[in-house]
Amino acid sequence: MVADTAEARERYRRWATYASVTVALILIATKLASYMATGAVAILSSLMDSSVDLLASVVTLLGVAQALQPPDSTHRFGRGKAEPLAALAQAAFVAGSGVFLGYEGIGRLAEPRPVQSPELGIATMVFAILLTGLLLLVQRWVVRRTGSMAIAADSMHYSGDLLMNSAVIAALGLTAWSGWPYWDPIFALCIAAFLVWGASRLVREALGVLMDRELPAADRAKVKEVVRAHAQTRGIHDLRTRSTGIGQHIEFHLELDPHLTLAQAHDITDEIERELRAVFPQAEFAIHQEPAGLEDDRLDHRIRR
Asked: Where in the cell (predicted)?
């Protein structure tokens, strides 16, 4: 498959953020009407989550727009880390809604209330599942094409919505079938716990990018494999990698024959970079050439010590 151009990837990111905001607005209006008709706290939990979705989607839209700004004199590495910052904001919204929902659920356990028109609530949740599923297909396609962390975080949140909406249907169905009023707040508390757990996952992933965590071991191994496959390579050391939020940054020391001219070393490095770019099309590379056999202070040695 031919790699998408940078312009195409930017366009896909924007499409995904616009779709996310639109879906959140539709679901908020639908669930608000359903909650007013039924009074079910389980539907309230889903309404709150959709409200958080809207805030998170707006933050994602702003974060992606900022991340896509080209490098300039004050941000020579670009603004890609706006995406994990947007993911952190999403995590705060999700955790806050989970805590508030837990409070509401405990209140309903103490003073249970009957659920009106559960059939309307179930129909609302089925509609929400279908619309959310369609959005997830779009988001996951965009994530595969772009590697966007903010959109991936938004997609993970909407994936949780599928489970949440299914739980709401179960709560309403059990309440209608048994007449026991506690199903509604019990499911609401379970959903609250799920939201807080999901927020903790978003925080860990976003902080990993902001703290310059290394790329996965498989990616680092692939870099070494490509470099060592070149006939002129004599070695590679001090490999450092990190996510930029919208791509990767890869740097290393390339060991070459010490008798090569500067022009020859430059041409070999360009060849290796082209081969690496075919594997990591969204990466930026910084390659330092060194004569093979040189003994110097190395990051690899300091880490091992």
From this structure: Membrane
